[in-house]
């Protein structure tokens, strides 16, 4: 079960040894006879909770990250005690992690670790405060811009201090975990249920999107990309297709990575007109269909032909190509093998970086535009798509369905043009007119 968690091997070994030596003893454990799962330890119970999300890789990764952080914090919190960890304790603890052994003197401290099944309301209130500023930073935060595997000594659980929205999301995820553990009978109660819930504030407008003029910079840059050799032709075709797909379809990063060209389907409508749709299985395994315009269909044909494929997907293709074709095809690649979320993320970030450099070189007011574009990511294009659809007067319900939102209130956050118009009309017409 331990391998289903994302913990570094050394920490996982310490926690597993702790469970094997002492056994489950959490003060919040439910009656074993009434449990609906066979988990004997906290690690096993958390792994079973995570297993519910394996079919949604991005959700699974986010949930695993938060449960791992809580487990590691519980270790550090027990070791810290009333003052900073003594250097000798640190030396012994590192030795213990390298070779877990109860004969190590630090075992007397390890044996007192508070398991997740003993965490209280007070513990989790402190943990929420910790998320805002994990200290010492050298222990918890990875050096800026670096990425390491979990078994690299330089790996740390955090990339930076968490913003309020990220803390809220972490608490929501852990609340879900504790709620599931209670429902399964593994725990008696949910310690997070006692945290004060802030009054729900009205939905805020989304600001992480590209206004029209900045989106035009992106299109102008892609159009100006060189195409003097085969590699440049492929790079330009990829950039043009990826920006088109993300913008016109409003797709999530995970939906691009998981999708195939077999998801494009042609259907005869009630009025006798043939229309193309893109079928998507999105967040929470929700199915939706997104209208495919003639413009997108033309770009799909252009992209496929640039890679030597037939213009349109075959309706009965048993191994359809992925929505985004592999950047460097290796021998032996399966016909339908695609790219992962990280590769898609890096590809669109590269487009934004080069667009920002290209825009900044124009000087003057464009420097501010460039800074905004440089911060953009794939999800910004989803926000941009929503904002521009609403600005084009597409019905709010249609935009909601295209994006796969549960609530129309979520979709309403993207209506920027209405706010701009309201601001202009109010400030120009509603005046004091002092003499």
UniProtKB/TrEMBL annotation:
Annotated Tyr recombinase domain ranges read 220-428
Q: Give the top-rank taxon of the lineage listed in the UniProt record for this protein.
A: Bacteria
Q: Where in the cell is it found?
A: Cytoplasm
Spell out the CDD domains in the cross-references. DNA_BRE_C
Q: Which GO terms describe its cellular component?
A: cytoplasm
Main subcellular location of this protein, as a coarse class: cytoplasm
Q: Which portions of the sequence form the region Disordered?
A: 406-435
What is the name listed in the Swiss-Prot or TrEMBL entry for this protein? Answer: Tyrosine recombinase XerD
The organism is Pandoraea terrigena
């Amino acid at each position: 079960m331990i391998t289903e968690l994302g913990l570094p091997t050394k920490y996982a070994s310490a926690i597993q040894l702790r469970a094997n030596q002492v056994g489950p003893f959490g003060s919040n454990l439910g009656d074993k006879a009434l449990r609906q799962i066979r988990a004997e330890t906290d690690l096993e119970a958390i792994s079973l909770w995570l297993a519910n999300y394996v079919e949604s890789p991005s959700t699974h990764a986010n949930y695993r990250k938060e449960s791992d952080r809580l487990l590691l914090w519980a270790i550090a919190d027990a070791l810290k005690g009333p003052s900073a960890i003594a250097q000798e304790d640190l030396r012994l603890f590192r030795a213990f992690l390298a070779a877990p052994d109860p004969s190590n003197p630090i075992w007397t401290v390890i044996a007192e670790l508070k398991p997740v099944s003993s965490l209280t309301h007070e513990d989790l209130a402190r943990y929420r405060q910790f998320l805002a500023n994990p200290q010492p930073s050298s222990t918890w935060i990875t050096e800026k811009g670096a990425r390491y595997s979990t078994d690299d000594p330089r790996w740390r659980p955090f990339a930076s201090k968490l913003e309020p929205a990220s803390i809220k999301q972490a608490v929501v995820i852990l609340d879900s975990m504790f709620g599931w553990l209670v429902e399964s009978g593994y725990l008696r109660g949910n310690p997070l249920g006692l945290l004060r819930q802030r009054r729900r504030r009205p939905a805020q407008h989304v600001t992480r999107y590209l206004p029209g003029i900045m989106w035009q910079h992106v299109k102008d840059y892609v159009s100006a990309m060189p195409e003097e050799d085969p590699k440049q032709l492929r790079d330009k075709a990829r950039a043009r297709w990826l920006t088109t797909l993300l913008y016109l379809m409003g797709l999530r990063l995970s939906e691009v990575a998981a999708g195939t060209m077999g998801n494009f389907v042609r259907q005869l409508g009630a009025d006798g007109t043939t229309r193309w749709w893109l079928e998507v299985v999105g967040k929470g395994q929700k199915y939706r269909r997104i209208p495919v315009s003639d413009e997108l269909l033309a770009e799909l044909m252009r992209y496929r032909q640039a890679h030597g494929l037939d213009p349109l997907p075959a309706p009965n293709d048993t191994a359809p190509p992925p929505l985004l074709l592999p950047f460097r095809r290796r021998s032996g690649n399966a016909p339908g093998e695609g790219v992962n979320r990280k590769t898609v993320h890096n590809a669109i970030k590269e487009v934004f970086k080069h667009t920002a450099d290209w825009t900044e070189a124009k000087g003057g007011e464009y420097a501010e535009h460039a800074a905004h574009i440089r911060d953009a990511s794939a999800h910004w294009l989803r926000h941009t798509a929503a904002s521009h659809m609403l600005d084009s007067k597409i019905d709010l319900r249609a935009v909601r369905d295209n994006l796969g939102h549960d609530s129309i209130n979520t979709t309403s956050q993207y209506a920027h043009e209405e706010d701009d118009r309201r601001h202009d009309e109010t400030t120009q017409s509603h005046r004091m007119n002092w003499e």
